[in-house]
Amino acid sequence: MTKLQFRKWQSVQDEVLRRIHAREWKPGQLIPNEADLASDFGCARVTVNRALREIAEKGLLDRRRKAGTRVVLQPVAKATLDISVIRMDVEARGQRYDHQLIQRDISKPPATVSGAMRTSASAQLLQLKALHLADMLPYAFEDRWINTNIVPEATAETFTDISSNEWLLKHASYTHGDITFSAVNANKDQAEALGCITGAALFVMDRITWNGDFAVTKVRIFFAQGHRMQTVL
Amino acid sequence: MTKLQFRKWQSVQDEVLRRIHAREWKPGQLIPNEADLASDFGCARVTVNRALREIAEKGLLDRRRKAGTRVVLQPVAKATLDISVIRMDVEARGQRYDHQLIQRDISKPPATVSGAMRTSASAQLLQLKALHLADMLPYAFEDRWINTNIVPEATAETFTDISSNEWLLKHASYTHGDITFSAVNANKDQAEALGCITGAALFVMDRITWNGDFAVTKVRIFFAQGHRMQTVL
DNA sequence: CAGTGGTCTAGACCACGAT
DNA sequence: TCGTGGTCTAGACCACTGA
Question: Residue A78's pLDDT is what?
């Protein structure tokens, strides 16, 4: 009905994906070069290039100059995770978001933290512990360290009205981050904060955010029991 | 020294990212349109377009026709996970990979499985349980159901010489998949297989792979205690 | 060396959507 | 309505790298 958007490169991409999925082009097989495909599809070579490039970025094709383009034997699936502010996650579920500041200290972090953040062993950092709530029930427990050398304004902020995550997005910029997901058994403090039994399996996200070579913040988030993180291939 | 690759679009992208990170272009701010940037950078508009398009896909820019391009207020970080065959993960860590088939049955799955796979409630599926080993130590325990209506050849395969994952990649194609990550306390069977105590927190990946509207396979993988999944922003 | 993909350009038309 | 981004083209040159 509605023709909507003549994205020729996308129809080329769809057709190529169809041929791969239908095994018309088998794993390991060389496919025609860009110029031939362009005349087959009746479009410019650049259009074919864009279609194939995106498929190669997804990991389904292996492209090499002179050698041509092949269907990969064992595709490495690329799943994309959207890591947003926790408030957004909660509100996207149609729930009411609240947060409680549990602790706020300036102190010398344990060696594991200063090591991971590459701060000097004697440096004082700002530590925050907070609870995120969805519909008044515990959603996640957060343990964060902020590098006040990089973000000195943080020492003047109470973090009672705004979560540290959102405050940092407004006041600090970053260039990249490292994320790790794991599972841990809840200790007494975490169990108490999240309202579960000690030893319950918790889904954990660790994140260190960098601005160039300097760590801006390190945060460990313990999600309430039963939390799931979903994505698609 | 080596100039290597004149990718003008990438130098444009680097410069734009620098301006965003340096807050020269602040969150929420409108940046110059493509034509102006092109003349500023001394390149074609298409080159600017490619540079900005990729940044927008990463979630740092919001682009709208007529309205122009803005730096987003709260960037939603996109993290990409590479989901490969477990053997590859193990070997990438420099460890020896082995696997053991623990169970192989054709039976009617529980309602949760047939429901998730959208197979008829009375359909028989092939169930496999297997252990993945790294340097002879348990790495992950896998519980899999295969839809033999979609992949009938599976009924003739023993899965003793090749893991089900790699066999499926060779013999079945898929169009998309759903993935969920969570944490669970190990039950007695899982604890025994993985060599941990009952109740240990395990990192779990659930995956359903589809070919069009039909589920090819559903797998639940319990990783050994302490497993971490890493990525970057 | 030569074939293939990677990139760039100038110009063009179009889809969208803010105003 | 009309400014902006989205896409397409034909042609060109270049960077790789397999043979």
Answer: 84
Q: Helix axis angle, A45-58 relative to A34-41, nearest 10°?
A: 110
Q: Which domains does chain B have, with CATH numbers?
A: 8-71 (1.10.10.10), 86-223 (3.40.1410.10)
The residue type of B19 is: R
Q: Is the CB of A170 under 7 A from strand D?
A: no
Contacts of B87 in chain A (CB under 8 A): none
CA distance B92 to B141: 19
Q: What is the mean pLDDT of each run of 10 residues along chain A (233 residues)?
A: 64 92 89 91 92 92 91 84 88 91 92 90 90 95 94 88 88 89 95 93 96 93 94 86
Six-digit token pair at B138?
A: 């348990």
Q: Is B11 on the interface with A (CB under 8 A)?
A: no
**Could you say which residues from 153 to 172 on chain A have a Cβ atom under 8 Å away from some Cβ of chain B?**
166, 169-170
B192-200 CB contacts, 8 Å cutoff, 24+ apart:
B193/B102, B193/B131, B193/B138, B193/B141, B194/B131, B194/B138, B194/B140, B194/B141, B194/B222, B194/B224, B194/B225, B195/B137, B195/B138, B195/B224, B196/B224, B196/B225, B199/A185, B199/A199, B200/A185, B200/B225
pLDDT of residue B6: 67
| Chain D positions with a protein C-beta closer than 7 Å | 2-12, 14-19
Question: In chain A, which among 26-55 make CB contacts under 8 A with chain B?
Answer: 27
* Helix, strand, coil percentages in chain A from 3-state DSSP, rounded to 5: 30, 35, 35
Confidence grade of residue B183 (pLDDT, cut at 50, 70, 90)? very high
